Amino acid sequence: MKISKGHIQTSLNFAVKKTSTFLILAISVVIAGTIPIFAEALDPLSVELTKDVYNKGDILVVFGSVPVVFDEVPDVTIQILFEEQVIEIAQIKIAEDGTYAKDFNTNAEKWAHDGQYTIKVYYTEDLFNTTTFQFFQNVTTETSSVFPVDIPNSGTFDLEYTASGFDVKNVELNQDRYSLLIEITENSGGNLVLKLPRESFDSKTGDDSDEIFIVLVSKDSQSDSFIEVQITELETTSDFRTINIQIEEGEKFIEIIGTYVIPEFGSIVIIILLVAITSAIIISKNRFSFPLYPKI
After folding, report:
1. pLDDT in tens, 27-58
2. How far apart are CA 16 and CA 221, in angstroms?
3. Model pLDDT for residues 166-201, shown as the tens digit of each residue
């Protein structure tokens, strides 16, 4: 059979088209298979602890999960640091469901400093997370309770707290400063965790986004002796904001400043205001009403 130039050209065109179609299909399959992985990777790696404060000899358990498990990366790496010093490091195999857990004994000699420690957990370049906790070599007394905060002319609201190394003596609401002034007992340092109810006390920006609380501490109640300190926001929900404040030795007063406190017009004030308005309306009606019968 004689092969013409036209036959060769037609065969070449068919081969090119077939190859192009195959490449397009192959790329589509790769993209389709990759999209779910990227979508899942949008969720962060989680890292959790059983509590926020640990003492010498406690068992610290670090646990969490990864949003997607890669066969070629079977482990997560956990680092525990005090400032820039690595205290513990471990590689943990991830379970099939994406969870991991590892316990550390804080009785070792390298656990030699009181203060805030940082935990870093790495999986891939894009999947990592951190959290913090407080550690004390001397055993501290931990108190969890609820303090009723007086609202001027309008009852109270409950402030949940956990105090390590001291207790809460008093809490005052200052509606003019949009703040809470907390007095604690004598102490050698510790940790204060507060669960702040949003409906009574909060800190917001102009567009209704959450704003960081300003926290001031002092060893006495003199206004010029307060200094600002950094805090850690442990949890945020639609109803509460939970914050952690590290207390140094001798500090007794903590002021937390927000942008909103429970409305200044309490229920009693509102009732008084309504009575006053109603009385004004009645008086106005009496002044401008015409008598039904003429005077004789």
Report:
1. 444 444 443 444 444 578 999 998 888 888 88
2. 84
3. 899 999 999 999 999 999 998 878 889 999 999 999
Is residue 288 included in any domain, yes or no?
Answer: no
From residue 190, alpha-carbon distances to 138, 141, 246 in Å are 11, 9, 6
Domains in the chain, number: 2
CB 157 within 8 A of CB 262: yes
Q: How many CA atoms within 13 Å lie on the side-chain side of 283? A: 6
73 and 125 together in one domain: yes
Q: Which residues form the domain of 202? A: 142-261
Q: How far apart are CA 189 and CA 114, in angstroms?
A: 10
If asked whether residues 120 and 154 sit together in one domain, one would say: no
Q: Are residues 125 and 156 in the same domain?
A: no
The residue written with tokens 């990592």 in the block is 128
Beta bridge partners of 266: none
For the chain, which residues score pLDDT lower than 50? 3-5, 8, 12, 14-16, 19, 21-41, 264-270, 272-273, 277, 280-293, 296
